[in-house]
Amino acid sequence: MNATQISKLISLVLRHHPEKLGLTLDGHGWADTKALIKAINAIQPFDMEQLEIIVQTDNKQRYAFSPD
């Protein structure tokens, strides 16, 4: 998968189907970053640096890191 495909996967999972990657969102819709990375990494190599790039470069600004 390239970065665009991973971004689309993240969008699908976080917005509609977190269970597809075995994730649980909190009451505000946030996912645990480490759990997200681990879930994607089970499909293909993926790390925090790649996630940061996706968050920073997404044209639609769909993603953000929680301050906490």
What key phrases describe this protein's structure?
single chain, 68 residues, mainly alpha, 3 helices
Give the overall average pLDDT: 94
Number of alpha- plus pi-helical segments: 3
Strand segment count: 0
The helicity comes to: 40-55%
Cα(first) to Cα(last) distance is 29 Å
Structural class: mainly alpha
Question: What percentage of the residues does DSSP assign to strands (E)?
Answer: under 5%
Overall spatial form:
globular
SSE order: HHH
Name the poorly predicted regions.
none
Radius of gyration: 11 Å
Largest sheet properties: none
Description:
This protein has 68 residues and is an all-alpha fold. 47% of the residues lie in helices and 0% in strands. The chain is built from 3 helices and no strands. The protein is globular. The protein starts with a helix and ends in an 11-residue tail after the last helix.
Give me the secondary-structure topology:
Layout: H1 3-15, H2 33-41, H3 48-57
Give a concise summary.
With 68 residues, the chain is an all-alpha fold. Helices cover 47% and strands 0% of the residues.
